[in-house]
Design a protein that fits this description.
It is built from 10 helices and 6 strands; from the N terminus they run ααααβββαααααββαβ. By secondary structure, the chain is α+β, with helices and mostly antiparallel strands. The strands form 2 sheets. Strands 4-5-3-6 form a 4-stranded antiparallel β-sheet.
């Protein structure tokens, strides 16, 4: 790993903040695709913050680790804390949101990745070509009460109505076959589907665990790489 890697940057940030002068041998085991739009790099950074803080006995505390996480990337604070949260600012200003039990998803992975900068450039072109004006964001943006209610009650069908990703159109333009995966999922039991982050991973929301297993099996039989997962999940931690 070179100095630009988030794992190295996270470890160095803890050392700098604490005054620690030693080192660590860090091995990263990736369980999500690189450039898959799933925040894998951010999760690696969050795990590193917690791991080296424990290994070195620096005891920086949750508040300081959160502060460091925000300097590493917009998604790192959420990966550090986990759960369900409302993200403001760049997504790094988090407010916990109550979610009852788990929601079940099927993730469809791709062999090829998508570059996040490429997707954002495509989004800019898409907006320019379609004369889409970016609305001024309110000082205190609100979230639909129905969405919060769906999370509180564990109502997957109601939650499905609120799945949205502004980057989805751009990702689909760069990888049109993702649209076929979304359509396949929604015609084989998914309540709704969405491109995860900047893609190309597709996230399909289903009603329950059995539905997730059935849909994953259908996608696999059709030649796609699908796995079933549940969320919310815990943030970075040392077992």
């Amino acid at each position: 790993m070179d100095e630009s890697n988030l794992v190295i940057r996270a470890a160095r940030a803890v050392a700098t903040a604490s005054g620690y002068t030693g080192g660590a041998d860090i091995q990263v085991v990736k369980r999500v695709p690189i450039a898959g739009g799933m925040g894998g790099g951010s999760a690696d950074a969050a795990a590193t913050l917690v791991a080296v803080d424990a290994l070195w006995g620096t005891n920086l505390g949750a508040a300081k680790l959160s502060e460091i996480a925000a300097t590493l990337g917009a998604d790192v604070p959420f990966a550090l804390h986990g759960g369900t949260a409302l993200g403001l600012g760049r997504g790094d200003i988090l407010s916990p949101v109550l979610a009852k039990s788990s929601f079940h998803w099927v993730l469809v992975l791709n062999n090829a990745g998508l570059s996040t900068p490429d997707v954002f450039r495509q989004l800019d072109r898409h907006r320019a070509e379609h004369s889409i004006e970016i609305e001024t964001v309110a000082v205190d943006p609100s979230v639909e009460s129905e969405l919060l209610q769906a999370l509180r009650t564990g109502d997957a069908m109601a939650l499905a109505e609120y799945l949205r990703n502004d980057l989805q159109a751009a990702a689909l333009q760069l990888m049109p076959h993702l649209g076929e995966t979304l359509e396949f999922g929604e015609t084989h039991g998914a309540l709704a589907g969405i491109v995860s982050g900047s893609g190309p991973t597709i996230a399909l929301l289903v009603a329950d665990e059995d539905s997730a297993a059935d849909l994953a099996a259908s996608l696999t039989a059709d030649g796609r790489n699908a796995i079933s997962v549940s969320a919310p999940a815990l943030g970075a931690r040392v077992n």
